[in-house]
Design a protein that fits this description.
- It is built from 1 helix and 9 strands; from the N terminus they run αβββββββββ.
- The chain is mainly beta and 124 residues long.
- The protein has a single domain (1-124), classed as Leucine-rich repeat, LRR (right-handed beta-alpha superhelix) (Alpha-Beta Horseshoe).
């Protein structure tokens, strides 16, 4: 299990994981020093809404190339230091709901290219 393998790396700053199908709410719970997570092309399409809640130092999040069809509006709620978010190449992502990026006050780079977006709501 990945959780047991990374649990002791509490001072980890950067993490890259591939071939992950589901991200639950406790996977990153002890990794509060993480600044950079790459889950690019990991193959998952299910992520718990609280998966990133403890990652208060995260500034770069790469979720590109996965199977997203919808993103919960609370998914990024606690990522107040996030500066770079890559959602590109999520071909099943057709909509970005209102409020999804509302708490990302420090965001300077957002990539949503090569998605199948047909609607981006107001006040995202």
């Amino acid at each position: 299990m990945i959780k047991n393998d990374i649990d002791n790396f509490t001072q980890l700053k950067k993490l890259s994981i591939a071939n992950l199908k589901i991200i639950d709410e406790i996977l990153f719970s002890n990794l509060t020093d993480l600044e950079d997570i790459c889950l690019s092309s990991a193959g998952f399409n299910d992520i718990h809404v609280k998966a990133f809640d403890n990652l208060i130092n995260l500034n770069h999040l790469d979720l590109s190339g996965n199977n997203w069809s919808k993103l919960d509006i609370l998914l990024f709620e606690n990522l107040r230091n996030l500066q770079v978010l890559d959602l590109s190449f999520n071909h099943n992502l057709t909509r970005i709901d209102s409020g999804l990026f509302l708490s990302l006050n420090r965001l300077v780079s957002l990539s949503i290219s090569r998605c199948s977006l047909v609607e981006i709501a107001q006040n995202v």
